[in-house]
Design goal:
Elements: H1 3-13, E1 16-20, E2 29-31, E3 57-59, E4 62-63, H2 76-85, E5 89-96, E6 102-104, H3 140-143, H4 170-179, E7 185-190, H5 203-212, H6 221-229
């Protein structure tokens, strides 16, 4: 991908990608609004007409990193807990493995405060231990050996640590949402750092895999241009599969 196109894609993907899981609309909670400034409530005796009701606002209750303050972050246990609480959006972070799998984890490198090594994926694996290594340099099989619920995060004293938690794939999270028949949105952040490109998958790979996973459902004109320049057809949204 040309440098200018890559920069444009980074700008477009560095934010969160919003989608509706399994074709469901998000549940919204009405929030009461105050009368506009300068208006007087009916019956006040002022003689003014009652204020005109403005458009209703809604509250989007997001579980950040799957509700990291409650349960092990970005874990199946955490996402399950958030769904049972009734959140309207699951927020999560994605990385790309060395073998091209989209996984749900926040840090570009394996964080020792979150994950611990248990064993090598294969005997004599030269990459072992994996803690501290770049996620994009490790395969899914290597990542699956990590225990990412071995302890409560030091900065989250109320978090419930679910020992044995694995880094899930994005498809596993989709499957969880489907199994719960959850009316929920998913706020999926792509962990791309243009200042440290060696710490994550190239933007070209991110665009291709997110397109293949049907994660990108809102295609701004600039992103359409980048994809057209690189012969990437626009897919159907995830819920249209």
């Amino acid at each position: 991908m040309p440098a200018r196109a890559r920069a444009a894609a980074i700008a477009l993907l560095a934010g969160a990608a919003m989608l509706t899981a399994c074709g469901h609309r998000a549940t919204t909670v009405p929030v009461a609004t105050s009368p506009p400034p300068g208006t007087v409530a009916a019956g006040s005796g002022s003689g003014n007409a009652p204020p005109t009701a403005g458009p209703a606002r809604t509250l989007d209750l997001q579980a950040h990193r799957g509700g990291a303050g409650e349960v092990t972050e970005n874990s199946i246990a955490g996402f399950t807990h958030a769904l049972e609480l009734g959140v309207t959006t699951l927020e999560m972070d994605t990385q790309i493995t060395a073998d091209g799998m989209v996984v749900v984890t926040h840090d570009n490198t394996i964080n020792p405060e979150v994950c611990a090594d248990t064993a090598a994926a294969t005997a004599g694996d030269p990459d072992y231990p994996y803690v501290g290594k770049v996620v994009h340099a490790l395969t899914l099989a290597q990542l699956q050996t990590l225990d990412c619920g071995f302890q409560r995060r030091p900065d989250l004293p109320d978090q419930i640590a679910v020992k044995g938690s694995k880094i899930p794939t994005l498809q596993q999270v989709f499957a969880l949402v489907k199994s719960h028949r959850a009316d929920v949105r998913m706020n999926i952040e792509t962990k791309i750092d243009p200042t440290a490109p060696q710490q994550s998958a190239p933007v070209d790979e991110f665009v291709k895999l997110l397109r293949d996973e049907r994660i990108i459902t809102n295609y701004p004109a600039k992103l359409r241009t980048v994809m057209a320049q690189n012969n990437m057809p626009l897919p159907q949204p995830y819920g249209a599969r």
